[in-house]
Design brief:
The protein is α/β, with parallel strands linked by helices. It has helices at 20-30, 58-64, 77-89, 101-104, 137-144, 146-149, 164-190, 203-210, 212-221, 250-260, 263-266, 274-279, 281-292, 297-306, 317-322, 324-329, 365-370; strands at 11-15, 34-39, 52-53, 56-57, 68-71, 92-95, 117-122, 197-202, 233-236, 242-246, 310-313, 334-336, 342-344. The chain has 2 domains: 11-213 and 333-370, Crotonobetainyl-coa:carnitine coa-transferase, domain 1 (Rossmann fold); 233-322, formyl-coa transferase, domain 3, CATH 3.30.1540.10. The strands form 4 sheets. It has a 6-stranded parallel beta sheet, with helices on both faces. It is elongated. The two termini are 47 Å apart. Keywords: Transferase.
């Protein structure tokens, strides 16, 4: 893959915390931009979560690789002045404060250059009745319907383990910034006057994008749609190990029944198509579950793959890292991250890979501030 880094020479001030904003900043750093990670004296809250060694955490390292570290106390006038000076020089400003806070701290759009890209990431957006509400990935998953659609066998809605809303919003933010940078380049090429671009992204919108088809279906039906491809799902073999099997066309059900030794089910009118199988899922799924329980998982995977069915073991992250295909394609290159050592992080799809470690708290503060000092003369 050709690793183009088209944003070399671009200066990004990343005042985001957590995952979404830093994810966008990391992707800009990977594509060549100089990204300064601005943190308060206590640090980004992500530094205190997940597996840690010394002063570093895996969660922080995952989304802040390739950046420079700067600490400023924005409650102090000198800190605000330095932040404002950096914002004035930024091609892209990223912030994830509550609406209105960035402007009070000298990090609002009005503090940037005339054609800067100003990205705000918040829970519910910069306007509207919920704009001031605090929000995290878990709150966004619950509010947006993702948790309700992720109901477990216990009948309880669950958030997904990974921060899927945060990551989705971070990638969406990166795409939005790229669009704005392309539009700015067109303006400059055409000699048009500079225009500041303000981008308002929210976890609300990020979650909704994940559920585009489900939200559309619910609007038409007046209720949440059922599972679209019953009896797809996870099943346990006789050895206690789990596999996933999915169906995308009605003939797949006939094949599944044949592999499981249940051909009469394929001729049962109750299970004639996806809609009928969804209606009668409570009758069908236990029979499928019992059939899978009759043989070890790998027996079923081999039989289903031989029949060209889509199936896979249910892997843990450790299983995934050790899988021969993952290893062969280099899907998780190791990245040396200070005290954490060499950490395998998934390759960024279709983009250059981040270079360098995430910064220690305030690691480059003196160097960055020295650039703001007036040149003697």
């Amino acid at each position: 893959m050709i690793e183009d880094r088209p944003y070399t020479g671009l200066f990004v001030l990343d005042a985001g915390q957590g995952v979404a904003g830093p994810c966008c900043g990391m992707l800009l750093a990977a594509t060549g931009a100089e990204v300064v990670k601005l943190e308060p004296p206590e640090g980004d809250w992500s530094r205190g979560l997940s597996v840690r060694k010394g002063p570093e955490s895996v969660l922080h390292a995952a989304w802040n690789r390739g950046k420079q570290g700067l600490v400023l106390d924005l409650k102090d006038p000198a800190g605000r002045a330095a932040a404002q000076a950096l914002a004035a020089r930024a091609d892209v400003l990223i912030e994830s404060f509550r609406p209105g806070v960035a402007a009070r701290l000298g990090l609002g759009p009005e503090d940037t250059g005339p054609d800067a890209i100003c990205l705000s990431i918040s829970g519910f957006g910069q306007t509207g009745p919920y704009a001031e509400r605090p929000c995290t990935d878990a709150v966004a998953q619950a509010f947006g319907g993702l948790a309700a659609l992720n109901q477990g066998a216990d009948g309880i809605p669950h958030k997904t383990g990974p921060f899927v809303t945060d990551v989705m919003t971070g990638f969406a933010a990166f795409a939005a910034v790229q669009t704005a940078l392309a539009a700015r380049a067109q303006d400059r090429a055409a000699g048009r006057p500079p225009r500041r671009r303000v981008l308002d992204l929210s976890l609300l919108a990020g979650t909704a994008m994940l559920l585009a088809s489900q939200i559309g279906e619910a609007a038409l039906l007046g209720h949440s749609p059922g599972v679209p491809n019953v009896p797809a799902g996870c099943y346990q073999g006789s050895d206690g190990l789990w596999l996933m099997v999915t169906l995308v066309r009605d003939p797949d059900f006939v094949t599944l029944c044949r592999v499981l030794g249940l051909p009469p089910l394929a001729e049962d009118a109750r299970f004639a198509n996806f809609a009928a199988r969804s209606t009668h899922a409570a009758e069908l799924v236990p029979m499928v579950r019992d059939a899978f329980a009759g043989q070890p998982r790998d027996h079923w995977i081999a039989a289903l793959q031989a029949a060209r069915m889509m199936t896979t073991p249910v892997n843990s992250p450790v299983d995934w890292l050790a899988d021969p295909h993952v290893v062969a394609v280099g899907a998780a290159p190791a990245s040396v991250q200070g005290a954490l050592g060499a950490v395998p992080f998934p390759a960024v799809p279709g983009q250059p890979q981040p270079r360098g470690a995430a910064p220690l708290l305030g690691e480059h503060t003196a160097e960055i501030l020295s650039r703001l000092a007036p040149v003697p003369g």
